[in-house]
Amino acid sequence: MIAKAMEPFVFGDPGIGAMFDVVAKMVAEYGEENVYNFSIGNPSEPAPEEVKEAIKAILDEEPMKRIHGYNASSSGDAGARAAVAEHLNRLHGTAFTADNIMMTVGAAGGLNVLFKTILDPGTEVITFAPYFGDYNYYVENSGGTLKVVAPNAPTFQPDAAAMEELINENTRAVIINSPNNPTGVIYSEQSLKEIGEVLARKSAEYGYAIFLVADEPYRELAYDGKVVPYATKYYDNTIVAYSYSKSLSLPGDRIGYLVFPSEIEQFDAMKKAAECAIRMLGFINAPSLIQLAVEKCVNASTNIAAYDRNRKALYEGLKGLGYDCVYPDGAFYLWMKTPVEDDGEFAQMALKHRIVVVPGKAFGCPGYVRVAYCVPFEMIGNSMPAFKDLMTEIQDNY
Amino acid sequence: MIAKAMEPFVFGDPGIGAMFDVVAKMVAEYGEENVYNFSIGNPSEPAPEEVKEAIKAILDEEPMKRIHGYNASSSGDAGARAAVAEHLNRLHGTAFTADNIMMTVGAAGGLNVLFKTILDPGTEVITFAPYFGDYNYYVENSGGTLKVVAPNAPTFQPDAAAMEELINENTRAVIINSPNNPTGVIYSEQSLKEIGEVLARKSAEYGYAIFLVADEPYRELAYDGKVVPYATKYYDNTIVAYSYSKSLSLPGDRIGYLVFPSEIEQFDAMKKAAECAIRMLGFINAPSLIQLAVEKCVNASTNIAAYDRNRKALYEGLKGLGYDCVYPDGAFYLWMKTPVEDDGEFAQMALKHRIVVVPGKAFGCPGYVRVAYCVPFEMIGNSMPAFKDLMTEIQDNY
């Protein structure tokens, strides 16, 4: 029989899952181009051509054992790690070496390795709503509990003072996600400084480091020249989780990394524990061939301008129809206040107009929906009459 | 600070880890060719040429989203799963479809997904010593405890009657590994029938299925025409975990699969729970590009004849020197009874002769060592004088 712990996911309220079943039926009935599916965070832009050429060159030039063998270190290929470190140093003026980098099975794999490294049963991790819901699982996989700071509307910047109120002797880490999924907000330098100040003070009070975990898969997706501050600069005990799922459009390949700065408490022990954890959890090492592709493509980029064009078109279009949206500085999500109070009800109403969005309650923030604009550009224009009809329906009935 | 649960691995007895540090120093001092390292289960044969050609063709011919995108199903690419199912049907006369296959991040990833699917805190999984030690972690990651049936020397076939004594109301699964790491023994059809009979009887007694988990990364490495019985044929509630780490020499790429036969209890719920588990654990999906390589290479094979040659040379050589070894029918490991009682002491003595082997206690079976013969053929002949000196030293002193 299946685990009791898994029963709610299999037999419980299907929630968003049920919505996807409806979407699949609509696509079958009306055709994909007539369903405005803004629910998926799957990059719409292809991987850069450099990735293809890099993989072919690796297959022709590298020794077979380096391409397909176990890595000599559980932290990953030394060349790939050095390339990542140098790239970060070039961009952010940091001083990382290969020793500070652990290649991981995407950011999701990296976060699970990290939490196994620092969490025990009864410990807690804090995050800020709205937040990526799967953090709950990642923390619980290592026996911890996720504690959530209430949403800070309308800016959705993290509220360090509210965070401080949740810190206690069980707190081991705070996880932030910037540019943020689902809001598209970039956490400001001021926000990071305030978080760092509180964590430094509370760490001193408790006598051990409370880690700041910066989950940054959307780092490169920042618009209008906005800068995403590099979190390690504002607090010593910061660990970065990164993924190439968005920046190189490689979500299926499962490749990312963790940054363990040398300044963190118990650096050597942390590295050693993480190298045990990646094996104990069954990841073993990040996929080897794709590590080498990353080594060659650290400077490559997906077509960010395409997402930017989508962003502007969607924001302006919806604003013109009377929707109240947060102007997104990063990622590929638009965060919309629902014109009816219940975000679940709004998502159902939208579905009748063949518009698919994700209710904010999935991110710990009711009253909003996430509109993912990693979609074909045409879909945005094509969807506007449906959004208009939806607004008319709401205005007529509320 | 690091998790209390990780402290033993970081600050505790370094055990085999310390041995590897000594080995690294020896390699630096004497050169790699003068250290007879039989400790690593890393395939010595390269991946077949078909893999390289397959990957290049995929990069040129497949749509970018299929190569690098998230899989539409968490079970993996539908084409890859269909190819695996058809391959198994051809070989074993089974009737699997893509629905019975879940592509996983190696067998280690697959086992973690499976245990998350069926284990709760307080549950138990049974295995037979000697066994792959990391099973302990995989079971504990989902809150379970591994219970171990004592070694059944000298055949090392699994003892179904001894297994039955360990079954209780907390037992959820029995995991077997054949061809076996570390013994090289192939579990016989008779053994599988006996295990299946006991599990069917105990499942009926408790009113739910106790699963048989067949972990088979070494399936293709069987010699002298020996057949490895396909476990699903002997007990309905069998789930197979497979990896291409050995059969295609792709250990770094992290690719394997789980087989969920349609006959298992709660088939639909099990599949759905596993698809949740692979996401919750942070694997998300098996690496996408390598799934497609597997689809094209299901019939390819590593150079098994090379391992066979090593096997015979090592077994005959050691036998001639008076060592007592199990003649291995499969995998690439030789299982040797240590000529001194303590296998740890023997491994240390061997190290002085620059021979590296893994003590049996690491596999729950003291008094033996594992000699991995996935090594260059020359190393076997070159190592014989050292093995001879080692035996002479033992005979002179004991």
Summarize the topology.
The structure is a homodimer of 398-residue chains.
Chain A: H1 7-11, H2 16-30, E1 36-37, H3 49-61, H4 64-68, H5 78-92, E2 101-104, H6 106-118, E3 124-128, H7 135-141, E4 145-149, H8 160-166, E5 171-177, H9 189-206, E6 211-215, E7 238-243, H10 244-247, E8 256-259, H11 267-280, H12 288-297, H13 304-320, E9 324-326, E10 333-337, H14 343-352, E11 355-356, E12 358-359, E13 368-372, H15 377-397
Parallel strand pairs in A: 1-11, 3-4, 3-5, 5-6, 6-7
Antiparallel strand pairs in A: 2-8, 7-8, 9-10, 10-13, 12-13
Written account of the structure:
Two copies of one chain form a homodimer. With 398 residues, chain A is of the alpha/beta class. Chain A has two domains: 138 residues, Aspartate Aminotransferase, domain 1 (Alpha-Beta Complex), CATH 3.90.1150.10; 249 residues, Aspartate Aminotransferase, domain 2 (3-Layer(aba) Sandwich). In chain A, 44% of the residues lie in helices and 14% in strands. Chain A contains 15 helices and 13 strands. In chain A, β5, α9 and β6 form a beta-alpha-beta unit. In chain A, α5 runs parallel beside α12.
